[in-house]
């Protein structure tokens, strides 16, 4: 890569994450086969429950939900009973997996703790990328042990997801005494742990959302503009180009940059912006933001000389002022 690599951050120390109440931080002993319950039968919860069952763990209960959730659990966890969240928590003597939306997580955990559904020594794990261990404080107060276990993958909630779990990374935040169990669970799921400090969870999740979610938006924006240009099947045009660009970016970093911005072709970019403003004005602002960030990275990587970037940056700045006016 042209841009210098920053040193990889060390795995978080025990002091970086809240204690679960263990006296010495020494690794804890758990049975090889865990008794597991899943609160939240959405796409992630049902798939991870099925993966844990396939790894030999005893998944005993999951929560009921919408018609889609029932169909999903019937397909992925056909022999697992559906119960209330409190009953699932009581049945999960070893591991309770909480797979609910980020904004609902704190309320669900607090409700289970306040209702007496959690037990001392039980591991309560959530699968949120945005949260660390702090959101599990009510569970810790009830004597449970906290674990944040986020799969870095997009889910459809179908059996196809099980094959996609092979080799993926999990963002894990855990007290020192739970690290061996966390590593074993990730291995059972066929994944690789990435140890994330409590304070770094929002940055970790922002990076994943920026890369994956915004990629979907970017691809669909490109497809829409190709349709505007008269291309009947934009996915056929984009598929080989985008696959090559993604592979090159992952392999080469900023050395994969190509196109008018990386060459400083101000006239081409100006024509892009003029036609976008006339055809799809809602695409002008995101194009500008990404073009400016691309220029910054190209300059920092040495692929675009500052002197060659002056006209380009002027075009971007001038269009920005028109848009803001």
TrEMBL record:
Region of interest called Disordered, as start-end residue ranges on this chain: 1-25
Organism field: Micromonospora citrea
InterPro entries: 6-PGluconate_DH-like_C_sf (IPR008927), D-isomer_DH_CS1 (IPR029752), DUF2520 (IPR018931), NAD(P)-bd_dom_sf (IPR036291), OxRdtase/DH_put_Rossmann_dom (IPR019665), TM1727-like_C_sf (IPR037108)
Record domain Putative oxidoreductase/dehydrogenase Rossmann-like: where: 32-151
Residues of the DUF2520 domain: 170-294
Recorded superkingdom: Bacteria
Protein name as annotated: Predicted oxidoreductase, contains short-chain dehydrogenase (SDR) and DUF2520 domains
SUPFAM superfamilies per the UniProt record, alphabetical: 6-phosphogluconate dehydrogenase C-terminal domain-like, NAD(P)-binding Rossmann-fold domains
Upper taxonomic lineage: Bacteria, Bacillati, Actinomycetota, Actinomycetes, Micromonosporales
One Pfam family it belongs to: Rossmann-like
Segments traversing the membrane: none
């Amino acid at each position: 890569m042209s841009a210098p690599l920053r040193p990889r951050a060390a795995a978080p120390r025990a002091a970086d994450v809240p204690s679960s109440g263990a006296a010495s931080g020494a690794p804890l002993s758990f049975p090889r086969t865990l008794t597991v319950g899943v609160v939240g039968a959405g796409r992630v919860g049902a798939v991870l429950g099925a993966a844990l069952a396939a790894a030999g763990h005893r998944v005993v209960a999951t929560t009921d939900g919408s018609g889609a959730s029932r169909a999903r659990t019937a397909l992925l966890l056909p022999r697992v009973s559906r119960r209330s969240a409190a009953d699932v928590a009581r049945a999960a003597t070893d591991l309770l997996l909480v797979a609910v939306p980020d904004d609902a997580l704190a309320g669900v955990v607090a409700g289970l703790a306040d209702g007496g559904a959690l037990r001392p020594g039980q591991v309560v794990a959530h699968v949120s990328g945005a949260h660390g261990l702090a959101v599990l404080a009510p569970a810790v107060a009830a004597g449970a042990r906290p674990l944040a276990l986020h799969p870095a993958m997009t889910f459809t909630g179908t059996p196809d997801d099980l094959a996609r779990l092979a080799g993926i990374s999990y963002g894990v935040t855990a007290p020192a005494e739970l690290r061996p169990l966390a590593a074993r669970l990730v291995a059972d799921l066929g994944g690789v742990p990435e140890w994330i400090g409590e304070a770094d969870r929002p940055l970790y999740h922002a990076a994943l959302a920026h890369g994956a979610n915004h990629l979907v938006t970017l691809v669909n924006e490109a497809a829409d503009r190709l349709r505007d240009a008269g291309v009947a099947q934009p996915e056929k045009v984009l598929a080989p180009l985008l696959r090559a660009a993604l592979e090159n970016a992952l392999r080469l970093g900023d050395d994969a940059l190509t196109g008018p911005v990386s060459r400083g072709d101000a006239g081409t970019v100006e024509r892009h912006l003029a036609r976008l403003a006339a055809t799809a004005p809602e695409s002008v602002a995101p194009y500008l933001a990404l073009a400016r960030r691309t220029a910054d990275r190209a300059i920092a990587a040495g692929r675009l000389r500052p002197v060659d970037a002056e006209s380009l940056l002027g075009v971007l700045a001038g269009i920005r002022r028109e848009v803001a006016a």
